[in-house]
Amino acid sequence: INLALTTKMAVGLLLVVMLLKLAATACCVGAGFSGGIFAPSLVLGGLLGGLFGHLVEGLFPGSVAAVSAYSLVGMGAVVAGTTLAPITAIFTIFELTYNFEIILPLMTCCITSMLTVQRLYGYSVYETKLLRKGIRMLRGHDVNLLRSMRVGRYMTTEYETVRQKMRLGDVLLLAERSTYPHFPVLDDRGRLVGMLSMSDLKSFLAEVGELCTLVVVGDIMSANVITLKPTDNFETAFEVFEGKQVSTLPVVDPADPGRILGILKKNDLLLAYNQEVLKINALPGSGT
Looking at the 3D structure of the chain, how many domains does it have? Predict the structure, then answer.
């Protein structure tokens, strides 16, 4: 790395060393040898950045940054791409140099590297190791375990509902004494037509007055209801919770989507998942 940063290594030698280092790292990681991937990423990034620096210097002599700057940025870019952790890469390179002039190109290359890897491959080198063992992670959660857990087993049938034609004043009174942040909205036939949350009510708290008798639940509820089925697994539910940024989802009958069977809260999902993880870790031979 020092030779690449100080431009004391010839271009041809840079290329040879980079290819040899790449092959050696791939063989070691593929064979499961210890040694890590962070330091090799720094070396490969420094060599690759140095090669690119020599290239642009030859094309635009005297009008580009020093080759060492390209080496530093290359180090950060490769680390960000292999680990999918651009912030770590940026701070690591900055702490090595304390050079404010490379911050902007460093940030640009690190973020671009991460987005490129996510788009073309999708996993960091550490996640790849887990995938080879049959372990797939979703935002820090074991997908195999999430897929084995069904919504119907963990949903709750204790919840409060409101009617579509219920007046705002009555809903506010219900919300004051209720422990539930979301209310399934039912029509006159008892079928699910929407969801009402505390955030839907907040905008009306300052203007209660006459609105208490004029506004009904149907005017302020969310009509586009996202639902789950009892047969859905936790992976599906978790993706909906994360993607739609909601904390409660109604569970409906697959044969009759208007018939609500229960609700699933995100906190209940996470609690059930963590309890299953503890049970698995407590089994003999599971390890810690």
Answer: 2
Q: Which residues contact 69 (CB under 8 A, 6 or more apart)?
A: 53, 101, 102, 105
In a domain, 288, yes or no: no
Residues 42 and 165 in one domain: no
Are 177 and 82 in a shared domain?
Answer: no
Residue 287 maps to a domain: no
Domain ranges, residue 168: 138-281
Which CATH number belongs to the domain containing residue 227 in this structure? 3.10.580.10
Q: Is residue 153 domain-shared with residue 236, that is, in the same domain?
A: yes
From first to last of its 288 residues, the chain has per-residue pLDDT tens of 676 666 677 888 888 988 998 898 888 877 777 667 888 899 999 999 989 988 988 888 888 888 889 999 999 999 999 998 999 999 999 988 888 888 999 999 999 999 999 899 877 887 777 666 655 655 556 778 888 899 999 999 999 999 999 988 888 888 888 888 889 999 999 999 999 988 878 776 666 666 677 788 888 898 889 999 999 999 899 889 988 888 899 999 999 999 999 999 999 999 998 898 888 777 665 554
In a domain, 102, yes or no: yes
Regarding whether 119 and 210 lie in a shared domain, the answer is no
**pTM (two decimals):** 0.58
Same domain assignment for residues 127 and 150: no
